Amino acid sequence: MSRGDRDAGGGRPGGRAEAAAMWRRPRPGRAARARVAGQRPALAGWPAPLLLPLALAWGGCGGDSLVGPAETLEPDAGTWRTWVISDVAALRPPAPPDSAATQAELEEVLRLQVGRTAADEELIAAWRSPTEPWSALATEMLEHWWPFLPDVQIATPVRAARIMALLHVAMYDAMVAAWAAKYHYQRPAPSRASRQVAALAPDADRLPSYPSEHAAAAAAAAAVLSYAFPLDDTTRFHALARDAGRARILAGAAYPSDVEAGAALGRAVAAQVLEWARTDGSDEPWTGTIPEGPGMWEPTPPRRYPMPLDPLAGSWRTWVLPTGGAFLPEPHPPIDSPEFERDLQEVVDVGASLTDEQADIARDWATEAPSLRWELFMGEEIQRRRLSPMRAIRARALASVAMYDAFVACWHAKYHYWLARPVTMAPGFTPLLSTPPFPSYPSGHSTQSAAAAEVFAELFPDAAAKYHDLAEEASISRLYGGIHYRFDLEAGHELGRKVGQLVVERARSDGAQ
């Protein structure tokens, strides 16, 4: 991209400002954005009963089922390619109970339905989707921990993306395994087996019931979140998982034995995913030293936090990339070159002439871990398009993996080059945003947003232009904020695009077409 293609005021890369403006939504605060995405604004405190947060989080998205026409039941989803588990059949639960035991379970389901309360109704509504409430919960928890950076490093950009990838991979693999067993055993749901049992959820009688996909996803999610958020009360995650299973029994969609088998399956999948997580390198301590010299990173104002975040993340295990360094960008312009001076001066000039709109864009993209914004976009697409449960969690896993791998690739480059930030290289310059405590080149927002946009464009081709424009907005927001050079953005965008294309290639061969 030539310098002449850029807006004079440091505008959106590629000259697509008008197209992006068409898609730009109003700039609400975090709580309003959560409501737009169908999520509860805050989970702090988690009021009792435990079902209430998720009833508000997901149950408020209208009465539509997440399962559309009959063909969206995805009977072949048990053959889709998994991320961690290598043999779906090896996780198949034993055959469901015999007819006498099933009759006793039917009577138990009917008893629960007859005696159901208003809280039970809320529970049923909260768990229409087996996976979306867990995505909403994880997003809110990461948003909760974001302001504690850098002192508590649970929600650093790379670690937040890692948590979402682990969560969605675990739920996806658990759902694939559940689907394989469902269509192997073909056990009719209680509401289909007996006219006395009501189908109290839109999809309650449409799928084979054994094992319960809600219980499988919930057990996998609870295990991953317990691992990811050890500072929280993890018993709450498991209580929510029990609520998910109970909701499906109350809805006439599952027998108690379906829930038990699904939960056991989810725990087995989670064990494999967590073994992957514990060996991905993210717990390794850094024993290196910060390089010194002209143009090398150094702690930045206002806090001048002395240790850069996640210096080893570029070596963490990836899902699709061969290694974090597979697409290492070319070196940035030398610090004594005209190109470097030009891009540094641009940061200063843009900072001195920011429009209100540019400042809003910069602040808006800095309000949470960058991947979480794309998780919200994904939730909106899932809800708007009424994706089936399997399509929804597949989309979640693909996007989350792309963003995590993109961050690993970006962090590999950051700590390969150790480039100082603009605030260091331009004495007297005060950026709009507080500069994050890690090296500059390339931009993390640019890298992960470009990767996400590639996956979104593949999954939702009618919205491809929208998401490419949003990726460019995320990227330019960092120049508006005064914390990245133009060449950071360009290198990050190209790096993210390559990572995203690798994930798209995998998606095209995962059996879900």
Q: What does this protein look like?
A:
The protein is mainly α. The protein is 54% helix and 0% strand. The protein has 19 helices and no strands. It has helices at 17-23, 30-36, 51-57, 99-114, 118-126, 132-145, 157-185, 190-193, 213-228, 235-250, 256-278, 338-352, 356-364, 370-385, 389-417, 422-425, 444-459, 464-480, 486-507. Helix 3 packs across helix 5 (118-126), helix 13 (356-364) crosses helix 18 (464-480) and helix 14 packs parallel to helix 17. The longest helix has 29 residues, at 157-185. It is elongated and about 80 Å long. Residues 1-71 have low confidence and may be disordered.
Topology:
Layout: H1 17-23, H2 30-36, H3 51-57, H4 99-114, H5 118-126, H6 132-145, H7 157-185, H8 190-193, H9 213-228, H10 235-250, H11 256-278, H12 338-352, H13 356-364, H14 370-385, H15 389-417, H16 422-425, H17 444-459, H18 464-480, H19 486-507
